[in-house]
C-alpha cells in the first residue's frame, strides 16, 4: 500500500509539472519569436545533459551501456524518436496552434489508446472505472473539438492533428521503454535519448541558431527543460513501474486540470460552456 501511495504521489507531481511547463511554453510563444522546434531542442538538450551529469556523479556503471547494446540500440532509437522527441515536439505544436489547456486535453486521449492496447494485445479486461474514464475522455475531447457541432471543428485542424499525434507518442512512452529502463537504467535512457533527440531535430530542421531573446525568456526556456522534462519524465517513468501504465494514466489527469486553471489565471483565456464541460470530463 505504501508503494502504491508513493507511485500515485510521483504521478501527481509529474502531471502538475507538465501542466506548468505547458503554460510556460505558451508564454514563451506569445512573448518571443521562439517556435516549437527551437523550444523543444532547448528543452531536450538541457534536460538530457543534466540527467547524464546526475548519472555520472552517481558513477553509474550503465551510463554508456546503451551505446554498446547491439540489437537493442534500434529499440532505443525508436523510443528516442517517438517516446521522447515525438511527445515533446507534437505537444508544443498543439499548444502553439491553440493554447496549453486545449493541447493538453487533446493529448490525454492517450488514455483511450492505452486501454485499447491492454485490452486487445495484453488481454487485460478493463475495470468499470477505467471504462467510464475512457468514455468521459472521448466525450470531453468531442466537446472541446466540436463544441457539440458534429459538422464543424472548434479548434484548428493543426491543433487537433498535433494533439492526437502527441497522444500516440505518449502512449508509446508509457508502454514501450520498460525493458530499456531495466537494462540500461531509466535516467540513462531518458538522458541519452533527450540529447540525441535534440541533435537529430536540430539537424533535420536546420535549426542551428535561435532568435534574440530576453534573459527572462531564456530562463523560462531552461525552466521548461527542468520542470517539463528533467523531473516529470523520470518521476512518471518510476510511477508507471509501481502502478502500471493504465492506473498511472488515470492519476496523471491532474495535468489538464492544472493547464486549464493556469491558462485561465495567466492568460485570461475565455472558455465557453462546452470547453469547461470537456475539461471536467
Structure notes:
The chain is mostly helical and 281 residues long. It has 13 helices and no strands. It has helices at 2-31, 36-57, 72-96, 100-107, 110-120, 128-146, 157-175, 178-184, 186-205, 215-243, 245-251, 254-267, 273-280. The longest helix is centred in the first third of the chain and has 30 residues, at 2-31. It starts with a helix and ends with a helix. The mean pLDDT is 86.
Brief characterization of the structure:
This protein is mostly helical and 281 residues long. Helix content is 78%, strand content 0%.
Order of helices and strands: HHHHHHHHHHHHH
Q: Globular, elongated, flat, extended or rod-shaped: what is the shape?
A: globular
Overall structural class, as computed from helix and strand content, comes to: mainly alpha
Give the strand tally: 0
| Strand percentage | under 5%
The overall average pLDDT, rounded, is 86
Biggest pleated-sheet summary: none
Calculate the terminal CA-CA distance, rounded to whole Å. Answer: 28 Å
Key traits:
281 residues; mainly alpha; 78% helix
Give the SSE map:
Blueprint: H1 2-31, H2 36-57, H3 72-96, H4 100-107, H5 110-120, H6 128-146, H7 157-175, H8 178-184, H9 186-205, H10 215-243, H11 245-251, H12 254-267, H13 273-280
Helix pairs in contact: 1-3, 1-10, 1-12, 2-3, 2-9, 2-10, 3-4, 3-7, 3-9, 4-7, 4-12, 5-7, 5-11, 6-13, 8-9, 10-11
